[in-house]
Amino acid sequence: MTRTRKRRGEQLMVPRAEFDSYYGRPIIHAPSWAARDIAGYFFLGGLAGAGSVLAAGAHLTGRPSTATAMKVSSLAAVSLSAAALVHDLGRPGRFANMLRVFKPTSPMSMGSWLLSAYGPAAGAAALSAVAGRLPKTGAAATAVAAVLGPALASYTAVLAADTAVPAWHGAHRELPYLFTASATAAAAGMALVLAPPRESGPARCAAVLAAAAENAVTGAAERRLGMVAETWREGRAGTLLRSARVLTVAGAATAALAGSRSRAAVVAGGLALLGGSVCTRFGVFAAGLASAEDPKYTVVPQRKGT
Question: Nearest CA to 73 among 188, 181, 196, 244?
């Protein structure tokens, strides 16, 4: 009893830490990017890049329907991705201005050049596949798009992590892997939706591997972020990222278990994978905004009375 009373009567010798800033204002400026444009740009670019890798694999393994579908899908995705970026910039001329400089240390500069190189390759690959002409040119374009695809799928993570936003910069090691896994899940989902079930074996395998990788990398990122990981678990970002996990795992499991027997189940799994990838990109984006706006994540804690 005596020990219990002493413990209850104990007082902290060091006051609790407080997180504050001048007038309660954020220490850093939250990105002025519009969620619909930039998070959509992240998702669509990843879908295009990973889709080109799957298209090349289907092209090499004699799956013509899957190859053509993914080439067209990648062209559509990169076109919409570029449109979203230009819409956020305000005028097309601003994108052209970014090509005036080639700066290897700038993710924005390298990303602009990457997008400019990848787009024509994806376009040539898709046009050749649809028209059935210039097969050698189409094969070369398919190879170029596949080589550039992984960089396109992951560079937006480097772009985000290069900022001072705590929820992005703190996970700079894991974020490229997370975006790549999410892009792979999206591309696999698109292949499951568009391709005939008899050709869906590689897409099902990719979906399972991507789902496992995404869950593992998300956990690693949250552990590294420490207290900042609250922004990944709470509010709008938390809802989106939890939904992403459920949809991605459910989509991969449905596609794997359905095999090629049920077209409806395969399509449902593919749509779930696409939805999960969308939620991942928008969830990470929302977490970044939340961490930038809250001084708790951007200031060094101060002690009362110091």
Answer: 188
Q: Which residues of 47-65 are buried (b: 16+ CB within 10 A; e: fewer)?
A: bbbbbbbbbbbbbeeebee
Rounded to 5°, the CA angle 56-58-64 comes to: 115
Separation in Å, CA 88 to CA 38, 85, 91, 99, 264 = 7, 5, 8, 17, 37
CB-based contacts of 109, cutoff 8 Å, min separation 6: 98, 101, 102, 103
Q: Residues in the chain, how many?
A: 306
Residue 216 confidence (pLDDT): 95
Interval 42-99: pLDDT, tens = 999 999 999 999 999 999 999 999 999 999 999 999 999 988 888 877 776 666 666 6
Distance of CA 99 to the CA centre of its chain: 24
Neighbours of 221 (CB within 10 A): 21
